[in-house]
Amino acid sequence: MIGRAGYTVLLLAMTSSASHALDGEQSRGKALLQTLCSRCHAVGQTGTSPHPDAPPFRSFGDDKLYDEDFAERLQAGLSTIHPDMPTFQFNRADAEAVVNYLKAIQVRPKAK
Ligand code: HEC
Q1: Residue 72: its pLDDT value, please?
Q2: Residue 35: what pLDDT?
């Protein structure tokens, strides 16, 4: 027999393929980004960035930025040439949580 907890897990698994339900690690990644980055970037699946030049995280695209490289950049210290963008450094677990969240929210361009 499947207990209440098992039932919840099953429901979550079903939702996540249909919409963008986040698993625990992705939620942690989101929380980190909300703390560190949300004063400039739109972190969620909707909304505009508070900083006019900062791209919303969901718009980066998942092929280039969010592979192994990006997780490594987060650990090495993420910086850009933009003077408003501070440098951040993540440990490995945090970097992976952030990347998993970002992957989950990417808005894929319509097929050409
Ligand atoms: C003080 C404002 C500010 C904060 C805080 C900030 N950003 Fe940015 N970020 C920017 C701006 C502005 C740009 C656009 C830079 C440009 O294109 O010149 C940018 C660009 C980026 C880019 C794309 C450029 C690249 O190097 O690939 C990434 C990725 C990024 N930010 C990630 C983050 C993450 C992750 C955090 C939080 C850990 C964060 N940013 C926090 C302002 C900010």
Answers
A1: 83
A2: 93
